[in-house]
Amino acid sequence: MSAPLSTRLPNKNVYNFTLRCLFFQILALICISFILLTNDSAVNIISNCLLACELTITYFVTSCVSFSVYLPQGNTSITTTTFVKVKNGLKGCGLYIISILVFHCIAVLYGAPFFESVAETFHFAMVMTSTAVLPPLCALGINFSSWIRVFAQNKPELGPESVVQIVTILSILGAWLGAFPIPLDWDRPWQIWPITCVLGSILGHIVGLFCGAIHLMYSYRKLKKFKIT
Amino acid sequence: MFIFAKGFLLKRVVVDRNSTCSVEFSHRSDLHGGKGCWMHGSFKKAIIIVIDALRYDFIKYDENFVNESLPYKNKLLFVNQLLLTKPFNSKLYRFLADPPTTTLQRLKGLTTGSLPTFVDASANFASSEITEDNFVDQMIKQGKTLKFLGDDTWMGLYPGRFYRSFPFPSFNVKDLHTVDNGILENLIPELRKKDWDITIAHFLGVDHCGHRYGPMHPAMAEKLSQMNEMIRNVTRVMDGDTVLFVFGDHGMTGSGDHGGDSKDELEAGLFVYSPSQITSFPTKDVIQDVQQTDLVPSISLLLGVPIPFSNLGHAITDLFTFCPSWKSGSTVIKQVFHSVKALRLNAHQISLYIQEYYKHSSDFPINKYYELGHILSSAENELQAALTAMVKDGETRKLEEKLVNLRSKYTKYITEVRKICQSIWAKFDLTSITIGIMTIFIALLINIYCIRVSYWWKVDVPSTSIVVILITIVYTAFAAFQSFFIGESLTAFMVYLLGGFLIIGLCVLIIKFQVKNPLIIQKENNIFTVSNFETSVSLLGCILYFLSYFSNSFVVNEDVVILFLAQTLVWMYCISIVLDSLKLTEPAGLEPKNKRHKGTKTFDIMRFFTHPTMLVFIVTLFTSVSLRLSTVFAACREEKWNCDLSVFLLPLGNLVNQLQSYKNMRYFFSVACLVLLTFITRQWMKHYGNLNGASISVLCARYFCPIAVVCCSLHWALQGLPPKILDNMPVWQQVFLPRIVYILVLVTLFCIAFNPLCVFIKPSAELSSLQALDRDKSAVPYLFTKLKEKLEEKAKEKPQVAYGLATSYTAAIVCTVTAMSILLSMLLGDGPSPSLLLALFSAGGFLEIITLREKHSKPPSFLCYVVTFSMMTSLYFYNTGHQATVPSIRFEAAFNGFHGDFDNKIIPGLLIHLNTFVAEVFFGILSPLIIFWPLTEGIFVQWILKKSKEQEQRWKGDFILYEDGDTLRKLLFRLLSCIFIFHGIKIFGATCAACLHRRHLMVWKIFAPRFVFQAMSCFTMFGISMLMYLLIMRVDKSLDVWVSKVSQTS
C-alpha cells in the first residue's frame, strides 16, 4: 500500500498536527477495541453488538469532526463564511447518510440476510461509513474533484490526504477479510454476521492509521532531505 | 494450432478420468461358510415385508399426538394394537441403517450383514448380482423355498433364487401404486398356498410418495393406511410357526429424499410379530436401537439357518429369550442362557470371518486382532465354567449374573469387531491417489504452458513443446496403465520419477518463458504479470477458492462463499473501470482543489446518469443484484441446521391447500420468466437483424422456440394438477408435451449446427427504400452492416446489404442458448427455472462490463474474465437448487416426458445429469461470448452512447474476426485453456482436499461428494466448451462458403 510520492512538501504545521492526531487515534482506537473485546464490559461486542457499534460510531464521528474543524488549512487556506460552512456540513451529512445506505445495499448483495438482522446490517453499514468514508469526507470535504484526484488518480498530497487514502482502503479490506471466519464451524459466539466484519473494519482502520503514520514520516523525511540537498 | 489444441484437449480428458478412478477403496474377501444348521429354528416360516423408506416415526404410535396436521403420524395403528394386545408376540425396534441410505446398498446390507463402502454408493443404480454370502443363499442351501413380490432390484441381486416371483419395476418414482397394488393382489393368495417357507415382499409406495410429495402430503397418509391394512391382512393368514418382519430399509428427510446420513434418513422402523410367543420381554416405552445388519443373524438363527459368512451384525438378544421347546416354563436363567447361546454362535461366525479376512489382507491391526481373540477365548472359558456350574448347582443367582456378564462380553466382542471393520474398510490406495494428483497438476502446468506458447505469434510450434507433449503422452499412458492394470508394484516408483521430472521441467520452462524470451511479442498481454490490479484480485479469488476446498465448513457454505467472491470480482471490475474512466475524463491531476470555479459545477442530472461511470455502476449493480437474487433458489444442505427450504424448490403439485393462491402466483411467475427469457434473446436477435430471411435456422429460432415455451409451460401446468387427476390421465397425455419440447429443441439445435448463419442478403434494389424506412422510424434501427470493404469495392455498382452479418458468431451462440435454456428450464421444473433468467441477466451484465472495460482500450485478460465467469457458474450450480450431496440430486428430472420404466439407463442418466449441471451447460454455451460480445458492443452500451453514430458505418462487429481467422483460433484456444485451467484448479483443490482429509470425520459426507460432483461438473464444462469450439469453427466454415458465394454473384 504505497501512495506515490507527491513532490509537494506539506506544511510543517499540518504535518505535526496530522502525526499527533494519528497517534492519538491509534491509542484511542486500541483502547476502544480493548473495551469492546473484554468480556465483562457493558458494551462487549459479542453480547451487545449494536451498542458497541454505536459507541464506535460516536467516537469516530466526534473525533473526525473535531479534527477536521481544527485541521490547519495550510498554505491554501481561504476564508469561508459560516453559511457556506454550514451548507457544506449539511452536504457532508447527506453524503454520510447516502453512503450508509450504499454500504447497507452492498452488504446485502454480498450475502448478508435481507429480512433478518436488518439492524445489525445497518449498524455495520454505519461502522463502515465511519471508518472508510468519514475520514476522507472530513479531510477532503465534499469537493468531488479532490476525491477523484485522491482515489482515482492516486495522487494525494502528502499529509492528511495520503493518510486518509491508506486508511480508507485498509478499512474496506479489513471488513472484506472479516467476512471469512463467519462460515467456519468453530462454534464461537463471535462468529455471527456483523461482529467479525465490524472488528475487521476497525482493525483495518487501526492498521491503516499506523501505516499512514509510517508512510507520512518516511516520505516527509525523504522529501525534506530532497528539498534541502 | 487447431490440431495442437485438439490433441491437447483429448489428452486432458484422459488425464482426468485417470484421477477420478484413482481412489480405490476396499477389499472384501468372500468365502462361504458351509456349516450345518447352527441352532434349532424357533420358526419354520418367515414373512419379510420391506416397506421402502418406512421411517421410525411412521411406525411408532405417539399417544401425545392428537392433532391431525401431520399426515404420516399414527397411521400404522394395527402395529400398535398388536404391541399392546400381544406384548410377548411382537416387538418394535428403531432400525438404524448404515449410510449410504439408498435402497440397493441397504438391501445388500440387509441380506449379507456386512457394511457398505462409498464406492457402492457412487456405482449406484445398476444392480448386479450379490456374490457374497447372504441369508437368501443360506436358506436355499437349507432346502427352503422362497417367494418374492415387489421391487425388481431384488431380482437383479438374486437372479434365479426364487421359487416364484412377482417383480415390478422400481425406477419410476412418480408411480405410487403399480408396485404396491401388484403385490397386494398376489400377496394373500400366495401366502395361502402353503408352498413356501420364506416370503419376501418389498413395497415401494411410501418411498415413491416421499420422493414425489414429501412426508407432509395427504397422499402419505393414504399410503400408510394402505400398508396398515396390508399388515392386518397378512397377520390373519399367519400360522403359529411363522414369523413376520416388517421394516423400512431407510428413512427419509423432510423433503422425502434419502441417500445421506442424517438422523431422519437412518432411522427406520422394525416390527417383529408372530402368532406364537417370540420373546419374554414385552416392548417397553424405551425403544431399543438395532443396527440394520443385526437383522441377518437374527433371521438366520430364528429360522435355524447358518449365519452368512461375512455378517458383522449382532443377533437381537430379545428375540432369543424364548424357546418353544422349553417344556418346564421359562426362568430368567434359561432366557439369558438361550440368548447367550445365540450370541456365541454369532461371535464364532464373526471370528471365523475375521480369521479369514486377516489371512487375505494385512490391514487388520494385529494387536487389536489378538486382543479380540483373547476376549473371545476368555468368554468361551467362562461359558464352560458356567455350564459346569449349572450342571452342578442348578440355577442360582450367581450364575445368572455370570451369564449376563457373559452376554455383555460377547456383545462387546461383536461391536468391537464391527467398529474396527468400519474403520479399516475406509482404506485408500495411496499410490493411485498421489499419481492422480500429480497427473492433474501436470495437466494444469501444461495448460499454463500452452497459454504461454499461444502468446507466441509465430505459427510454427516450438520444438520444446512437442517434446513436452510427447513426454506427457508417455507419462499419461504409463500412469493409466499403472493405475488400472498393475496393482501395487515397483513401477509406481518409475511413474513418480517421471512425474516429478515432468513437473520440474515444466516449472522451469514456464519460468524461463516469463523471464527472458524475446519471442514473446505481446508483453503487455501477458497474463501472468501480477502487477495488474485485476489479475491479482482474480488470482487471489482463485487461490481463495482453491483453499476453501480444504475446510469442511467452507465446503458446506460454498454457495455463500462463492457469492461473496463473485460479488467481489464483479465490483472489482466496476471499481477499476470507474477509476480508469475518471482518470481519463479528468486528466488534470494536480490542480489545487479550490481553484475550480463553482459555476461550472451545476448539477446536471442527465449528465450524471449518462456519464460512463454511472453506466458502469448501473450495470454492475444490475449484475450483482441478479446474482444476489438468485440465492433465493439455493437448496439446503443437511449440515446447515438453520436453513429452511426455499418455497421454489417444492414440487408444484405438492403445495397443499393453504398455499393455493401462492401456487398460481408461482406458476405464472415462472412462465413469465421463461417467456421473458426467450423474448429478450429474440429482441436481441431482431435488433441485430439476425431474424430476417428464411433460412432453416432462422425459422427455427423464430417459430420453434415460442412453441417450445408454450409446450413447456403447459407441461408445468399439468404437473401442477393435483396428483389424483394426474394419475388418472393416460400416459401419452403426460408425455406428449415434454416430448414436443425435446423434439423442437433438438431440431433447432441440429439446424443451428447444420446452418449456423443467421445472415440475410437484401438485393440492392430494396436498399434505398429500406434506408428510408429506417430514417422514418429513427428509433433503434436495424443495424445493417456493409460487407467487407474489399467485397464492396468489387461490387461498387450494386451494393448489397447483409442483415446480421456483424453478429454472425454471436447469433449462433445466442440461438443455441435460447434453445438450450428452454430445455434446461423444463428439466429444472417450474420452481427453480426463474434462476436461469437471472443467470442470463448476470451473464449479460458481466459481458456488458467486459465491453465497457475494453472500451477503455484495455487489453483483454481472459484469465480474469474466466475466473469471474466460472465463479458465476459455480454460484448458479447452487442457485438452481442443487447441492454437492447425494440426496440433493433431483431424480424427478428423469421423468420429464418419460413415463414408466426405462429399458436403458442412458436417457434418464442424461436428463439427471443435465438437470444437475444446468449452470455448467448454460455458462459453457455462453462462454465464447467473452470473445465476441465486446466486439459486437453490447446493447446497453450502444443505447447509452448513441452519440458515436458515424462510427456505426464502419462497425463490423465480430465479423472482424472472420477476416482474421488465425486470431480467432488463437483467442478461442486461449479462452478454452483458461476455462480448463480454472476448472483444473477447482478439481485439483477438490482432489487434494479429498486426499488430505481421507481420515476426516466428514469425508464421506462432505469432501468425497464434493470431489465427485466437481469431477462431473468439470467433465460437463469441458464437453460443452469443446462443443462450442466446434460450433464456432462450423460458423467460421459456413461464413467462408457464404462469402465466396457472395463474391461470385457480385
From TrEMBL, chain A:
Bilayer topology: Multi-pass membrane protein
Primary location group: endoplasmic reticulum
Family annotation (Pfam families): PIG-F (PF06699)
Pathway the protein acts in: Glycolipid biosynthesis; glycosylphosphatidylinositol-anchor biosynthesis
Keywords, alphabetical: Endoplasmic reticulum, GPI-anchor biosynthesis, Membrane, Transmembrane, Transmembrane helix
Organism: Pinctada imbricata (Atlantic pearl-oyster)
GO cellular component, one term: endoplasmic reticulum membrane
Matches recorded under InterPro entries: GPI_biosynthesis_protein_Pig-F (IPR009580)
UniProt-annotated location(s): Endoplasmic reticulum membrane
Protein name (Swiss-Prot/TrEMBL): Phosphatidylinositol-glycan biosynthesis class F protein
Top-level division of the source organism's lineage: Eukaryota
Record-annotated membrane-spanning stretches: 21-39, 45-72, 93-115, 121-142, 163-184, 190-218
Keyword 4Fe-4S assigned: no
Automatic annotation (TrEMBL), chain B:
Gene Ontology terms for molecular function: mannose-ethanolamine phosphotransferase activity
Transmembrane regions listed in the UniProt entry: 430-451, 463-487, 493-515, 527-548, 560-584, 605-625, 667-684, 696-716, 736-761, 801-827, 833-850, 921-945, 971-991, 1011-1032
GO biological process assignments: GPI anchor biosynthetic process
Chief site of localization: endoplasmic reticulum
Keywords: Endoplasmic reticulum, Glycoprotein, GPI-anchor biosynthesis, Membrane, Transferase, Transmembrane, Transmembrane helix
Lineage: superkingdom: Eukaryota
Topology of this chain in the membrane: Multi-pass membrane protein
GO terms under cellular component: endoplasmic reticulum membrane
Subcellular location: Endoplasmic reticulum membrane
InterPro entries: Alkaline_phosphatase_core_sf (IPR017850), Phosphodiest/P_Trfase (IPR002591), PIG-O_N (IPR037675), PIGO/GPI13 (IPR039524)
Pathways involved: Glycolipid biosynthesis; glycosylphosphatidylinositol-anchor biosynthesis
Protein family: Belongs to the PIGG/PIGN/PIGO family. PIGO subfamily.
Protein name, per record: GPI ethanolamine phosphate transferase 3, catalytic subunit
Phylogenetic placement of the source organism: Eukaryota, Metazoa, Spiralia, Lophotrochozoa, Mollusca
